[in-house]
């Protein structure tokens, strides 16, 4: 029988959920903008932008964490400015873990939103334009509602990806109990401890259930997008 979570383990779970939620909230507007320009705009260097957006998906996570250190560390280009001007430090903080998780979730989120935007029937937008609707009204009343299932799918996928983020996080913000020790880091730490198997088992089961639920919900939303696209056409 699996023992209930201890107070310290509840802290790990709560921190993981907080980091994942903040990561998704932080990256969602950026991901929507990137998905929109990649699906609707034509400009020089579009292929390069597309490649950069998806780079965290294929780059070793440790390299991503190292790049975050170079940019957001105490002596980094952005990190030194944040520290001196705003008094904000991301290094060894849960906010830094949220930033790392957000970066790693961007490719999946952009992909889900982009597919949803590309599935929108352009004839609906053209018809609204011929009736005198402004671009903003077309976006708010037609484009955004039709893309909403993809946005929701991106939120779910981003949450699941953030929940499982390990490499970039531990490289960037290290393992600080109560501050940056999320579920994957806690599992790794427990594996290094004598008799840490029960902790690993509890955290692994929680991670599997949360990830499985997120993936199932994402699949439901993706199928809804497909049905919606067939219905419009």
TrEMBL record:
It is a multi-pass membrane protein. PROSITE patterns: ABC_TM1. It comes from the Bacteria. The keyword Transmembrane helix applies. InterPro entries: MetI-like (IPR000515), MetI-like_sf (IPR035906), ModB_ABC (IPR011867). Residues 13-221 form the ABC transmembrane type-1 domain. Pfam families: BPD_transp_1. Keywords: Cell inner membrane, Cell membrane, Membrane, Molybdenum, Transmembrane, Transmembrane helix, Transport. Part of the binding-protein-dependent transport system for molybdenum; probably responsible for the translocation of the substrate across the membrane. Belongs to the binding-protein-dependent transport system permease family. CysTW subfamily. This is Molybdenum transport system permease. It comes from Sphingomonas bisphenolicum. The gene is modB.
């Amino acid at each position: 029988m699996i023992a209930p979570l201890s107070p310290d383990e509840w802290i790990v779970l709560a921190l993981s959920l907080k980091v994942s939620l903040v990561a998704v909230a932080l990256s969602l507007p950026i991901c929507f903008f990137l998905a929109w320009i990649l699906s609707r705009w034509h400009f020089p260097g579009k292929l390069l932008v597309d490649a950069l957006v998806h780079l965290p998906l294929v780059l070793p996570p440790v390299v991503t964490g190292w790049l975050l250190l170079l940019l957001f560390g105490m002596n980094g280009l952005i990190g030194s400015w944040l520290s001196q001007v705003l008094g904000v430090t991301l290094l060894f903080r849960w906010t830094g873990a949220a930033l790392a998780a957000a970066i790693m979730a961007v490719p999946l989120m952009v992909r889900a939103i982009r597919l949803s935007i590309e599935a929108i029937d352009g004839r609906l937008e053209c018809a609204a334009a011929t009736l005198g609707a402004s671009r903003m009204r077309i976006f708010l009343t037609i484009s955004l509602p039709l893309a909403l299932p993809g946005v929701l799918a991106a939120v779910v996928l981003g949450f699941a990806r953030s929940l499982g983020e390990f490499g970039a996080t531990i490289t960037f913000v290290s393992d600080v109990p109560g501050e940056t020790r999320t579920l994957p880091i806690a599992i790794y730490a427990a594996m290094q401890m004598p008799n840490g198997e029960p902790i690993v088992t509890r955290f692994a089961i929680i991670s599997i259930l949360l990830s499985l639920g997120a993936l199932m919900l994402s699949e439901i939303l993706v199928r809804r997008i497909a049905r919606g696209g067939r219905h419009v056409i």
